Amino acid sequence: MNRRQILPLLAAPFFLPRPAAAQAWPAGTVRIIVPFAPGSFTDISARLLSQELTAQIGQSVVVENRGGAGGTVGATTAARAAPDGLTLLLTDNSFAISPSLYPSLPYDALGDLVQVSRIADSPSILLVRPGLGARDLTRLVEMAKARPGELSFGSGGQGSSAHLAMELLLNVTGTRMLHVPFRGVAAAINEVISGRVDMAIASLASGVAHVRGGTLHGLGVTGESRAAALPQVPTFIEAGVPRYDMKYWWGVAVPKGTPDAVVRRLNAEIGTALRSPKLVEAFAAAGAMPVHSTPAEMSAHVAREVALWREVVQRAGVKLE
After folding, report:
1. Where is the signal peptide (predicted)?
2. Distance (Å) of CA 81 to CA 77, 104, 152
């Protein structure tokens, strides 16, 4: 992700507030809880969304970072908040992964939070160090099968989305590699750039700047067509692994019990924000695409994701250390 392209957009002036809709927003400051440290695309997208919502509803919308335990600290904070429409949770794939990793979550991922809308999708990209000698996915799979367990991959930690994304790829290709966890996917990518780790899977938003700069090679992106941000990188389908289609996603949820009218209003406001040229441009710079969904569609999406990652965790025998 090229933050130099995105940060100026964050500093741009707000649009003027438009007249309030018929359904009044609850009075007070709205907070968007981000369950990760500042700097990730999750954080950046929350700040972009907060700016748009501030302009649209005419009251302050702020971002609150509550990192820890793979996103569960922030999710717990949101789940326990008053269901008054003043607390939102903006999270990603990790929300659907946590139920399979933590045997006693302090919240029910499918019951204690109401899904409002997806806001963005980003393809996964397989990043490898230039000196590895694998310029395409076919060659990489051949190397991994010839040297089982010797090639290494980095991730943002045991059980992180980057870890499980690679476990899914290893299962699909029938290969084994050494997992090297780090504190965050950015640190893992830096280790691949340094040559101390062979590869990593990340969102396109996290890898696009490194591939453009030539410090890493992109061997495949998920999706049916090539990513506009990196048209030189083939899809996994083109690379011979059509069954691999893991995508990163981001979405907004609110505490259970939030009035239906507020959920509907919030969904509509998010839809408006996602059409903002400033937000669309910033997302595109990060290799992400705005996605607006209904609450029902997002709930079904999260339920499918929970089931998918439960299967991956069980098959790979992933346990938190």
Report:
1. 1-24
2. 6, 19, 41
The top-scoring range by mean pLDDT among 95-104, 155-164, 280-289, 300-309 is 300-309
- For 123-221, CATH gives 3.40.190.10
Cα–Cα distance, 131 to 104 (Å, whole number): 43
Averaged pLDDT, 251-270: 96
Q: What is the pLDDT of residues 84-121, one digit of tens each?
A: 999 999 999 989 999 998 878 999 999 999 999 999 99
Could you report the per-residue pLDDT of 29-61, keeping only the tens digit for each? Answer: 999 999 987 877 889 999 999 999 999 999 999
Class of domain 3-121+247-316: alpha beta
pLDDT at 4 (0 to 100): 52
- Angle among Cα 250, 251, 254 to the nearest 5 degrees reads 150
To the nearest 10°, report the CA torsion of 224, 225, 230, 233: 70
* Amino acid at residue number 26: P
pLDDT for 6 equals: 53
For residues 293 and 275, give the distance between their C-alpha atoms in angstroms, rounded to a whole number: 13
Instruction: Name the CA radius of gyration of the chain, rounded.
Output: 20
Find out whether 53 and 15 touch, Cβ atoms under 8 Å. Answer: no
- How far is the C-alpha of 34 from the C-alpha of 39, rounded, in Å? 11
- Alpha carbon distance 99, 72 (integer Å): 10
For the chain, give every domain's residue range.
Answer: 3-121+247-316, 123-221
Q: What distance in Å separates the CA atoms of residue 118 and residue 226, rounded to the nearest whole number?
A: 22
The answer to whether the 3-121+247-316 and 123-221 domains have the same CATH topology is yes
Q: Do 282 and 61 contact (CB within 8 A), yes or no?
A: no
Distance of CA 295 to the CA centre of its chain: 18
Query: What is the torsional sign of CA 274, 277, 279, 282?
Result: positive
